[in-house]
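F.,

This is the one I mentioned.
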């Protein structure tokens, strides 16, 4: 009863302005919160109008049908939604194009209701009624946890004052210990919820291209089923696809390497370069790097932030295991392994050669066959791993240990067999491939020095996420360590 009374009193104080609730979200995430409501309103409105289009009107002549066709109101809704989101937003551009197209199609439209309901109506409903509300529900839960944390902190400080202690001393005794534990537990629950909410918010921003694709699907379905409007639809589709393809801020996790490099104008994949650069600063002497599992919520948040081009360097510099985990996840989630499916047999055959010199020559030959993009990124990564082994007395990561934990993320079979076969391959062959390449990195990739970490002093530690509709996957140019672009291989790792 006393705990409930204290919570009600804390809430009442915040309501009337006598106490200020702690704000735990950054300015960027507060902007995302506002954006969520706008996208929810636009998505809900678009879904509602699209559903009305599926109902159709019968028994009227062409002129009356055209005037009252629900598709006409849908077109108007889309244009208004585009105005809300702005032309600089991909969703705004897509809504505007689609709205104009619907207006032209209204005279000849024959709706294929089942197809549109499945491919357009339901995803929009999920976005406005499930995905966004779930994030908003988490936001409310976070507000409650913040209230609990503030309430616990207040009770703890009040206990300090009532004990008659000075401000620089802490109360002692069972009650004080209980209050302090309660305060710390409340803060921990709040932090876990905040990380989860932050990851979901960043994921929402990173997936804008997925939400925009609903409207491309609408156009494509109409193009297929409305033969009389085919010419019009074919003229508008290239414009829509051009916006999709030119939108640089596509997620990089799970995407083909060459596609990501082409869109970002890089030589080294953004997650690889960002994680390696940070690990050079803070992780080289961390014991069990790549082997110790990071916090699941922290890893999810880091991956989501990398996916939308935002990186808070200061936050993750204290958690090198999360950085290593994000790098491993990127490599494993590539549609094709960095060492390529095509060369899988070459790698395995090379690892089976007993003579060491011949085995190294065969591995070197396989390296040279890698596509240019794969070769550049593999070379970059191996140079870093070689540098990591220089600290193996401290970090315990020998070339063999690195090969065991990282090898399966660099090479795997196109159609993986059973667990026994896969484990045998990992232990006996992949380790025999990666370990000697790390050991002889300078021979496999001659020229230049190994990676050198640089001081991040003077660096703007957080790459802010702009909400003008353009998210730039880059770091501040005044930061020596993290100004990563297509030529940073020469600046960060002299290969």
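My design for it:
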């Amino acid at each position: 009863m006393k705990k409930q009374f204290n919570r009600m009193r804390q809430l009442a104080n915040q309501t009337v302005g006598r106490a200020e609730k702690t704000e735990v979200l950054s300015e960027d995430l507060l902007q995302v919160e506002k954006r969520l409501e706008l996208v929810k309103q636009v998505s809900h409105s678009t879904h509602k109008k699209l559903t009305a289009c599926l109902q159709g009107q019968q028994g009227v002549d062409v002129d009356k049908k055209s005037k009252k066709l629900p598709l006409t109101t849908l077109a108007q809704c889309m244009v208004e939604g585009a105005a809300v989101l702005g032309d600089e937003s991909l969703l705004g551009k897509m809504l505007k194009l689609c709205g104009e197209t619907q207006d032209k199609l209204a005279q000849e439209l024959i709706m294929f209701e089942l197809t549109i309901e499945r491919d357009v109506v339901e995803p929009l409903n999920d976005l406005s009624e499930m995905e966004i509300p779930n994030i908003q529900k988490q936001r409310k839960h976070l507000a409650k946890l913040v209230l609990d944390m503030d309430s616990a902190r207040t009770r703890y400080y009040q206990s300090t004052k009532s004990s008659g202690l000075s401000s620089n001393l802490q109360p002692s005794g069972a009650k004080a210990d209980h209050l302090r534990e309660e305060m710390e537990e409340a803060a921990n629950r709040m932090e876990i919820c905040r990380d989860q909410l932050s990851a979901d918010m960043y994921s929402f921003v990173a997936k804008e291209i997925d939400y925009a694709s609903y409207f491309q699907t609408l156009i494509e379905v109409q193009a297929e089923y409305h033969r009389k409007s085919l010419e019009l639809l074919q003229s508008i589709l290239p414009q829509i696809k051009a916006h999709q393809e030119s939108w640089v801020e596509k997620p990089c996790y799970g995407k083909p390497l060459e596609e990501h490099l082409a869109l970002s104008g890089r030589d080294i994949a953004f997650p690889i370069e960002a994680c390696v650069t940070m690990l050079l600063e803070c992780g080289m002497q961390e014991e069990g790097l790549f082997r110790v599992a990071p916090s699941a919520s922290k890893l999810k948040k880091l991956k989501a932030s990398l996916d939308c081009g935002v990186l808070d360097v200061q936050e993750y510099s204290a958690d090198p295991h999360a950085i290593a985990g994000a790098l491993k996840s990127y490599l494993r989630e590539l549609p094709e392994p960095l060492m390529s499916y095509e060369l899988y047999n070459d790698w395995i055959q090379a690892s089976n050669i007993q003579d060491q010199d011949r085995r190294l020559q065969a591995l070197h030959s396989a390296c040279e066959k890698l596509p240019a993009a794969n070769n550049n990124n593999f070379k970059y990564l191996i140079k870093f791993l070689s540098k990591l082994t220089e600290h193996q007395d401290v970090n315990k990561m020998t070339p063999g240990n690195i090969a065991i934990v990282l090898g399966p993320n660099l090479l795997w079979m196109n159609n993986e067999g059973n667990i026994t076969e896969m484990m045998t391959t990992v232990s006996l062959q992949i380790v025999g491939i990666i370990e000697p390449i790390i050991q002889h990195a300078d021979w496999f990739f001659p020229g230049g020095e190994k990676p050198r970490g640089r001081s991040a002093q003077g660096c703007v530690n957080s790459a802010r996420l702009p909400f003008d509709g353009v998210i730039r996957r880059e770091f501040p140019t005044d930061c020596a360590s993290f100004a990563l672009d297509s030529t940073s291989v020469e600046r960060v790792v002299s290969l």
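Residues 312 and 462 are 4 Å apart (CA to CA).

Talk soon.
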